[in-house]
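Reading a protein record of the kind used here takes only a little practice. To see the layout at work, look at the sequence and tokens printed below.
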Amino acid sequence: MKRPNILFLMSDEHRADVTGYEGNNVIRTPVMDWLAETGVVFRNAYTPSPVCIPARQCLMAGQLPKTCECEGWIDLKPGYRTFAREFSRYAYNTVCSGKLHHIGQDQMQGWRKRIAPDCEISDAYVEDRIDEEFARYRPAPGTGKWSNQREVEEARAAEGPWQVFDRMAVDASLHFLDRYFRDSLYLKPQSHRPLLFKLSLIQPHYPYFTDQRRFDYYYERVQIYREKPCDHPVLSQSQLGKPVEVTDEAIRRTTAAYYGMIETIDSHYGQVLRCLESLGENLDDWIIIYTSDHGEMLGEHGIWEKTRFYEASVRVPLIIRYPARFEGGRVVTENVNLCDLFATLCELADIETPDNLDSRSLVPLMSGDASCWDNESISQMGEDHVMIKRDHLKYQYYGEGIPEVLFDLQRDPKETTNLAEDPSYREAMAAFRVRLAELGHGPQANPDYRNAGYR
């Protein structure tokens, strides 16, 4: 029996609550809403790292940052086992279009074909680089990445680079799928083999630009966050560590542009789904996944971009649609992780799951069985910032000498009260510290850490 085709849709920096299916009554996401209505929604899905590159490496490897040694802006080692590489072994055509954000020498990471832009090797991975030569060409002042302040100030209705990139990725996808399933010119379709196709868009990642029509629609409708940072030495900092002081009008422009980008990617995904249907594909026989690498603070708690363990940054949208096996409309509230997609895809495709993954199959949860689920999700930023969420409690460690953080999301969904020193949470804190050590972090870190111990 032929293994199922898989469509993996991904965005960049999409906070989970800016979707219609999560109850946001301003954003227009009809395609995502349809996926949610006919698929399984994971309400508490978390990124293994709230920043692009390590999150994407961990997703591919099914391992946490410490396990796969991607604790910063670091690529997987060449030849590393990824789900794309594993599926290629089983005769899957593994094809991707758009942003992968691999920055090392192994640009394919198991994908057999890449059909759109985003293939770039970082300076750090240039073979036999001559450091003295690179030092001669330092960026001029004011070039490179904008500050958070300027990102917000520059937000507006405009045609940005990511709008162009995403259209190219979608156009390439439509062309590829047409040839793969029909090939009306050469009459040599390749659809006798199962397909794992990933379309990975950059929006709604900053810069905050969108088209004029969508900008105008959202400008008067969005609610904005106008909050001050807390007094924690880490949670009070935006990504680049500098305070952001902007007007309400600038925040409104930024939020409108961000919403516009989300509506844009929703429409792009709709194009791909309609294309498949026009080619005679029954989408109910496909596994379709939608997710993002991390969220966006959008000014909540006075913070911009990501890298923080607030829900807006670390929680991600996750939908898996497979009507041939699972009833639609189910909402899973257990804590899960993007790392779990490796084992999940393996089970859904009837492929043996490799050992030593930090990946648990989500299939039991999709069937309504949470009896054996540990209800834990882990995220890491750099070497010493760690989040462990278990049930409704979210623990955060930031290194020795920095206050630990504990949020009770059941009592405090806005994450405004640190309960780490509250006597009624003493036992919970002790348990989190034990788990932190097991994960190879903290003053009692296990020196023999290998993985999270799931498999």
About this structure: The mean pLDDT is 94.
